[in-house]
């Protein structure tokens, strides 16, 4: 009995220590962000840094996915534009955003600053054509993002292709697979479905094709994911498509700049994908 | 080597164990991606199969820790369908290791009964050699009455294959049945009930070793609300302190995920209600699915 009380006290103390450490760390991160914000305001060409970093990377993801946790309060449209700009500078052509928040808690609607691609209602192009010309001005990095950095995406006048951006929602996860299953069930007497049922792989390929069609995805599966959250969780992100995605958690509240982005890319470039071998 | 080791705790380890047990929430279900066996073997200049064998020994320790911690369900990723791409020598070596371990398991079922451990192998068993299928099916049937600790071994498994077989199970529903499924019955709740893990809650914690931060097509459907814990240590090198660190991380992160998890649970309940998931028609279909799976196991065991 005595032993149990001692253990309980030790356990509680441990949890209090962890909570206190987390609180201090969060405070430290915000102070750090404040300091970096002021520094970056005067030193606006972070993209030159990324361009240099790009040459040292052995591989780059073709498709990057950003996951925003339901309780994150630091990711806003400015930060997303910043990340889009970084992706564009290093040459990542496709980017998906999975924002799990509600509009009341900061959900970012991509249509407010991206241009519809015309391919599907969830596919956008960034930057807007007319804004592109403006921000390509040599001094186009004066707009300051909410987390503090300059918001020009190509401050020295480099020309980049528009980024293809997908907005992913919670209904694109399990529910979409169920939709596909329902459609197959309704057509299960057709030759096409009967052919699929002859071999498991054919059915897998069939489901894959139908999911991509519904998502408007004509792009590779995401190879890299950045989770903006205090804990690592996929929050139901595309269970069919992210099986080999490398996830990196960027702790909510931590400052995000070109260096953070480059660090994630370096880590991705170093990791070896074995594909089961 | 037994499936559950006789791990001897030091005094400090006992205190740490009890402290975590008494002060915080213990995960109900942990999933392990046991990665790093080959890298461990390379670093110690051992044969690859010896690396896998050491990995299995570590699994026996981990199962003991889970049992003592009060964790009710453990899922391990032992062999992916993608692993068939490895050399014949390595694949055959892994199958031999599995043959050896499942034979041992059948010899010590009384010990498993004593701990109440039920073994379930999840995956496409038909891709395995016939003798291994027989061993696995026998082990599953022999332990099916145990209910204290569920050990799910993912063997010849990928999540994509699991989801595909769930869709396949729905599509193969007998058209001539008295009361066949209606298209409106089909939703994520029904598909979830057709997965291999249909009788398991989703994992609370997913633990991956060896520094990789991907999920390698493991339980992609089920882990949407799980805390993911990645550590750099190789699987055969994990210690009880790594295990306890993952429990602390879970206790820390669980509270923050709780709202999201509650929302998902609520959504699932509402979906089940609105789609007549509990109707006789759907429940009959699921019962038939269970019966067919058991029939398959009996057929494999008697091969």
UniProtKB/TrEMBL annotation, chain A:
GO molecular function, one term: ditrans,polycis-polyprenyl diphosphate synthase [(2E,6E)-farnesyl diphosphate specific] activity
Superkingdom, taxonomy of origin: Eukaryota
Gene3D superfamilies assigned: Decaprenyl diphosphate synthase-like (3.40.1180.10)
This enzyme's EC code(s): 2.5.1.87
Signal peptide, first to last residue: 1-20
Keywords: Endoplasmic reticulum, Magnesium, Membrane, Signal, Transferase, Transmembrane, Transmembrane helix
InterPro entries on file: Nus1/NgBR (IPR038887), UPP_synth-like_sf (IPR036424)
Pathway listed: Protein modification; protein glycosylation
Cofactor(s) needed for function: Mg(2+)
Record has Membrane as a keyword: yes
GO cellular component term, pick one: endoplasmic reticulum membrane
Catalysed reactions, semicolon-separated: n isopentenyl diphosphate + (2E,6E)-farnesyl diphosphate = a di-trans,poly-cis-polyprenyl diphosphate + n diphosphate
UniProt-annotated location(s): Endoplasmic reticulum membrane
Cited PANTHER family: DEHYDRODOLICHYL DIPHOSPHATE SYNTHASE COMPLEX SUBUNIT NUS1 (PTHR21528:SF0)
Protein's name according to its UniProt entry: ditrans,polycis-polyprenyl diphosphate synthase [(2E,6E)-farnesyldiphosphate specific]
The species this protein was found in: Drosophila virilis (Fruit fly)
Gene: Dvir\GJ11212
UniProtKB/TrEMBL annotation, chain B:
Catalytic activity: n isopentenyl diphosphate + (2E,6E)-farnesyl diphosphate = a di-trans,poly-cis-polyprenyl diphosphate + n diphosphate
Key words of the record: Magnesium, Transferase
GO BP of this protein: polyprenol biosynthetic process
One Gene Ontology CC term in the entry: endoplasmic reticulum
Listed InterPro entries: UPP_synth-like, UPP_synth-like_CS, UPP_synth-like_sf
Keyword Metal-binding: no
EC number: 2.5.1.-
GO molecular function per UniProt: ditrans,polycis-polyprenyl diphosphate synthase [(2E,6E)-farnesyl diphosphate specific] activity
Family: Belongs to the UPP synthase family.
Record NCBIfam families: uppS (TIGR00055)
Protein's recorded name: Alkyl transferase
């Amino acid at each position: 009995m005595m032993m149990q009380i001692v253990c309980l006290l030790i356990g509680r103390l441990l949890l209090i220590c962890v909570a206190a450490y987390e609180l201090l760390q969060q405070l430290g991160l915000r102070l750090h962000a404040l300091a970096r914000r002021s520094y970056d305001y005067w030193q606006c060409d972070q993209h030159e840094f990324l361009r240099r970093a790009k040459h040292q990377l052995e591989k780059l993801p073709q498709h990057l996915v950003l996951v925003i946790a339901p309780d994150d309060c630091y990711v806003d449209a400015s930060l997303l534009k910043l990340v889009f700009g970084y992706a564009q500078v290093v040459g990542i052509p496709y980017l998906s955003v999975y924002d799990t928040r509600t509009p009341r808690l900061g959900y970012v609607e991509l249509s407010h600053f991206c241009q519809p691609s015309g391919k599907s209602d969830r596919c956008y192009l960034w930057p807007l054509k007319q804004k592109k010309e403006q921000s390509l001005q040599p001094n186009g990095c004066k707009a300051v993002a909410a987390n503090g950095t300059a918001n020009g995406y190509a401050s020295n006048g480099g020309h980049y292709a528009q980024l293809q951006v997908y907005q992913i929602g919670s209904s694109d996860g399990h529910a979409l697979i169920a939709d596909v299953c329902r459609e197959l069930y309704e057509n299960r007497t057709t030759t096409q479905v009967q052919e699929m049922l002859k071999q498991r792989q054919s059915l897998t390929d069939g489901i894959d094709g139908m999911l991509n069609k519904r998502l408007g995805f004509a792009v590779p599966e995401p190879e890299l994911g950045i989770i903006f959250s205090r804990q690592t969780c996929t929050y139901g992100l595309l269970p069919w498509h992210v099986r080999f995605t490398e996830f990196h958690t960027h702790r909510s509240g931590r400052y995000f700049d070109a260096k953070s982005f480059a660090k994630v890319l370096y880590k991705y470039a170093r990791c070896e994908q074995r594909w089961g071998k | 080597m037994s499936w559950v080791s006789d791990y001897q705790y030091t005094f400090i380890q006992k205190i740490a164990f009890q402290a975590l047990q008494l002060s915080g929430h213990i995960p109900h279900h942990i999933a392990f991606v046991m990665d790093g066996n080959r890298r461990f073997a390379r670093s110690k200049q051992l044969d690859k199969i010896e690396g896998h064998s050491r990995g299995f020994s570590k699994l026996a320790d981990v199962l003991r820790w889970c049992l003592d911690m009060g964790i009710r369900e453990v899922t391990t990723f032992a062999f992916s369908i993608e692993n068939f791409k490895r050399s014949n020598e390595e694949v055959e070596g892994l199958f031999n290791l599995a043959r050896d371990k499942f034979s041992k398991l059948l010899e010590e079922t009384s010990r498993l009964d004593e701990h109440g451990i039920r073994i379930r192998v999840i995956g496409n068993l038909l891709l395995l050699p016939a003798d291994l299928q027989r061993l696995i099916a026998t082990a599953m049937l022999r332990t099916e009455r145990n209910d204290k600790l569920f050990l799910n071994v993912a063997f010849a498994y990928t999540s994509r294959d699991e989801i595909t077989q769930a869709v396949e199970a729905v599509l193969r529903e007998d058209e001539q049945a008295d009361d066949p499924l209606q298209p409106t019955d089909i939703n994520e709740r029904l598909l979830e009930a057709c997965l291999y893990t249909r009788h398991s809650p989703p994992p609370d914690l997913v633990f991956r070793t060896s520094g990789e931060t991907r999920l390698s097509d493991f339980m992609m459907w089920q882990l949407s609300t799980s805390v993911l814990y990645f550590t750099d240590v190789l699987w055969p090198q994990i210690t009880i302190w790594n295990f306890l660190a993952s429990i602390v991380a879970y206790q820390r992160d669980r509270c923050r995920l709780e709202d999201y998890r509650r929302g998902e649970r609520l959504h699932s309940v509402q979906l089940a209600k609105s789609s007549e998931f509990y109707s006789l028609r759907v429940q009959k279909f699921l019962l038939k699915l269970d019966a067919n799976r058991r029939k398959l196991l009996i057929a494999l065991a008697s091969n």
